[in-house]
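Kindly inspect this today.
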Amino acid sequence: MGEYRKLWWTLIAVLAVTFTILGVSGVEVYRKAPPIPARVVTPSGSVLMTHDDILAGQAAWQSTGGMELGSIWGHGAYQAPDWSADWLHRELVAWLDLAAWETYGKAFDTLGVEQKAALTYRLRQEYRHNGHDAATGVLTVSDRRARAIALTADHYSRLYGNDPALQEMRDNYAMKEGTLPSPESRAKLADFFFWTAWAAATERPGTVATYTNNWPPEPLIGNQPTPENILWSLACVVILIAGVGTLIWGWAFLRRHDDTPLVAADRDPLTLAALTPSQRSLGKYLFVVAALFIFQVFIGGFTAHYTIEGQSFYGIDVSQWFPYALTRTWHVQSAILWIATAFLAAGLFLAPVINGGDPKYQKLGVDILFWALILVVAGSFIGNFLALSHALPANLSFWFGHQGYEFLDLGRVWQIALFGGLLFWLTLMLRGMLPALRAKDGGDKSLLALLTVSTVAIGLFYGSGLFYGERTHITIMEYWRWWVVHLWVEGIFEVFATAAIAFIFASMGLVSRRIATAASLASASLFMVGGVPGTFHHLYFSGTTTPILAVGAAFSALEVVPLIVLGYEAWERWSLRNHAPWMRAMRWPLMCFIAVAFWNMLGAGVFGFMINTPVALFYLQGLNTTAVHAHAALFGVYGFLALGFTLLVLRYIRSDIAFNERLMQTGFWGLNAGLVLMIFTSLLPVGLFQFEASVTTGMWYARSDAFLQQGFLETVDYR
């Protein structure tokens, strides 16, 4: 560890404490997940549904695209409703109408104010009461509620089928005709939707909040932010200010400077050694990055058109072959795959640089990994298509077709294959890294050690997405899914990128290794101190308890802190262009890295904190404001980072190619301008209008077709 001992021990302590919090809290998630009743019965003992029916409904929902067609508890796509909020409101309205006819002999809407208030009070008492018997696992609902459930279930059975009366609604929701062909599966789907709504309306034993911490906003039963929600939201702001203040003081007094002037080499040090066979083989990886990137852009535009024509593309009915759920799946998955491929290529380029040449059979390994990657991409995309067209048997859909969970949509077999590919990549990387770490040349290896640790983490942490199955409780599934989507992507990749860029610049002689190492270790600690427990800000309302909300709120505020100094980081990267004449060829990779710093600040920082406090997310979860953060952070940060890595590797493996400055300038600024326009002329305005609707009327309305199909919103909408 040498002179970096304090920084290393700080990082180790941060990881030990934060992963302990994540693990201990994970036990709480398992223990306190909303119960799935053994049976749902009426007072007379009539069985409405069973535990197995609810889980079969979950599998049926997954087979339709799951989170790629509407959302559950706010997680998923935004064209169709949040099914939990939608079911809950429909069932409440049905109950009120039944009660009005039984009590007053007329419809609820025709009653006087006092009569409505009396029935609404009875509704709230019945729905918030927990009728689940923990000893027997039996949930008892009133006969009136049973009839309301049946009426709501009938609506969903017709919606997911071919009922002509609901064709316009299916078009508004971008659902194809016969989304779920089997009547039996539609009945089970309704059971699952009921259970998610029950958990959102029923108070957790010993508390005055529902299993979902009162989400979604629903005035009819008093679903509003809890006192703990308000308190921890205020704590978020205090913690953020304290964290920023601490960072600035530390930056001012503790930041290390290296007064030794750097003398730039006459030639790029990385070009002094000949390219190895494995490095020359990386061109095909870069081609896949470009191909998937272009595909993602066009399929994204195709998907966006479904906001206007939910079943057609300029009058041509394409939904039976390429429905919204499928094209959105491909849009999301292609983004993950091209970004990951760029990271893999950057790592494989660095391995021979670190090792001083190719280990034995390295080129063969690089080629095998490439074709394995092609197999996973093709297999997962074809599987998605077959699953959503219901060409796959129902029992194979999860394994070979579509898991139904956003960002982890690919079938489980392809997910396992991708994890195997990452482990193989890790093996190829370690074959170059470990000999360099063991070498007794007396040089400092702390930066290389950090790069190695982050490489191992990339290879291993994706495996956390295998810790749930097709019928795993959705609260528990969400816990592990966010290990991948948040922790693996937003945490581990961030550390790898920081270490990799620092290693590259240090190897070029553009920054001193001492400063690069110290900055990377400090950045890693800052990223992880908030990033690891901050995973829980995705789980506030996913069936978890108040302690999870508290942990997520406290540490999510700290996620923003390291982003405060990214403007200075961008300036430092920009200043590198003048270190040597040969750095002019590095202009566009550097520009991409500068864009990363900007979008990290805006997309991850500003837009992330905008929705991350519990009280904000209570009203904003599942609205287009979430998409603002997602697009600005995923493409703005990791997309530009991947493009920077791609251009960097291309710069070396095809040094004979000169970038056309006009095309590069147009492309770079066009991508940034496009992202800005998408956010500020579409996603953000729609999200703010939805926010107002969520606060005043309820989540069900903010996501309804009645609200989103208003003319002025259709004009600017993009989901």
